[in-house]
Each structure stands twice: as C-alpha cells, then as structure tokens.
C-alpha cells in the first residue's frame, strides 16, 4: 500500500510539473517578467512617429561618449534622429589633424565611427554649448508654433550654418505632414518655419 501511495504521489507531481511548464500561447499574463523588444521604439510598419522627447539618453551623455573617445576633439554638430526604427545621436567633431563622425545608440554604444584627415580649406567651427539655449528650450519654443499643433517632434540637430548656431527641429504626424522649425541657438528665437504637406 505504501508503494502505491508513493507511486501515486510521483505521478501527481510529474503531471503538476508538466502542467506548470506548458507554454500556452493563449495566456494573457500581463505581469510577465519576460523582456520585450522595442517597447519604447516605433514598431516596423507602424505609422505613428516617435517623439524625441521620449529619449532617455541626454545629449550631454552622448557628447561625453564622443569626447571620451576622441580626446581633445571639438564638437561641430549633434543630431538626434531615428534610423531603422531606433533613435541615435550623430555627433561630428574635429581636432588639429582629423575630423570625426560617430553614431551612438540609446544604450550608449558607438554603432558607427568615421575618421579622416582634416581638409585645410574646410572651415571648422566648434559649438560653444554654454552660449546656447538647451535643446529642451529650443523644443519648447518650436512646439509653440501654430504650424506644428498636433505634430510630434521627431528629430533635432544643432550646428553652425553661415556663422549662426541653430537648432533645426523636425515635426511629423502619421498623415505625412512635415514641418521644420529653425531656432537661433543663442537667443532661442524662432527664425524660420518650413511646411511640407
């Protein structure tokens, strides 16, 4: 009798373990601890644009990665834009001998690096960040424009163009409307609005 009870107990435990280990695809457990990919990124095939305001990696952190890699290099431009459904920072810079271009993902990895000899006739200009309004202020100013109501800011860059440091901020919506706002980086004032329907 004792052997019968032990056999019965082993069978019940085996069935219980098998039942607990079964993966039921119809299960809608919302408390799953399993990681999911692209929870903060636009899914392939999705038409709704992502917002740069949702990006957690700050420009300062991305620039620190650049300057740690290229010691002594000055930064000439920084851009936050979406590539292959992922946001990345693209930073360009230079020193006395070379020019550099790098792409940094939101996990702080350099996913692309270019380095080439500096051309003597190129006019390299260093961004002086202490002289400029922050990217958040530029986004806030650009977001107040009537032309971007109901649109999402999807990219921004800061560079010097014709001696003037400017933020160029692009807004989009799922109807393919595209608006670009240019902000003077020193004064924080809106310079231009370009609407592309």
Explained architecture:
- It contains 3 helices and 8 strands, in the order H-H-E-E-E-E-H-E-E-E-E.
- It is an alpha+beta fold and 197 residues long.
- The chain has an 8-stranded antiparallel sheet with strand order 4-3-2-1-5-6-7-8, covered by helices on one side.
- A hairpin with a 3-residue loop joins strand 2 (86-94) and strand 3 (98-105).
**Order of H and E elements:** HHEEEEHEEEE
Q: What is the helix content?
A: 10-25%
Q: What's the total count of β strands?
A: 8
Q: Summarize the main sheet.
A: 8 strands, antiparallel
What is the global morphology?
globular
List keywords for this structure.
35% strand; 3 helices; alpha+beta; 197 residues; eight-stranded antiparallel β-sheet
Task: Give me the secondary-structure topology.
Elements: H1 2-21, H2 59-69, E1 74-83, E2 86-94, E3 98-105, E4 110-117, H3 135-143, E5 152-161, E6 164-172, E7 178-184, E8 190-196
Antiparallel strand pairs: 1-2, 1-5, 2-3, 3-4, 5-6, 6-7, 7-8
């Amino acid at each position: 009798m004792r052997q019968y009870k032990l056999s019965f107990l082993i069978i019940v435990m085996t069935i219980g373990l098998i039942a607990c280990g079964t993966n039921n695809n119809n299960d809608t457990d919302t408390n799953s601890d399993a990681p999911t990919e692209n929870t903060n990124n636009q899914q392939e095939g999705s038409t709704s644009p992502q917002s740069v305001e949702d990006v957690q990696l700050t420009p300062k952190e991305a620039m620190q990665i650049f300057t740690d890699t290229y010691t002594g290099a000055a930064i000439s431009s920084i851009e936050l834009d979406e590539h292959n459904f992922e946001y990345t920072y693209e930073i360009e810079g230079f020193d006395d001998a070379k020019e550099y271009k790098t792409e940094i993902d939101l996990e702080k990895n350099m996913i692309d690096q270019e380095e080439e000899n500096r051309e003597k006739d190129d006019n390299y200009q260093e961004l002086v960040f202490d002289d400029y309004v922050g990217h958040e202020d530029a986004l806030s100013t650009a977001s107040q424009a009537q032309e971007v109501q109901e649109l999402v800011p999807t990219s921004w860059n800061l560079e010097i163009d014709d001696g003037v440091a400017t933020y160029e901020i692009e807004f989009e919506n799922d109807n393919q409307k595209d608006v670009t706002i240019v902000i003077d980086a020193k004064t924080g004032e809106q310079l231009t609005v370009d609407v592309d329907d």
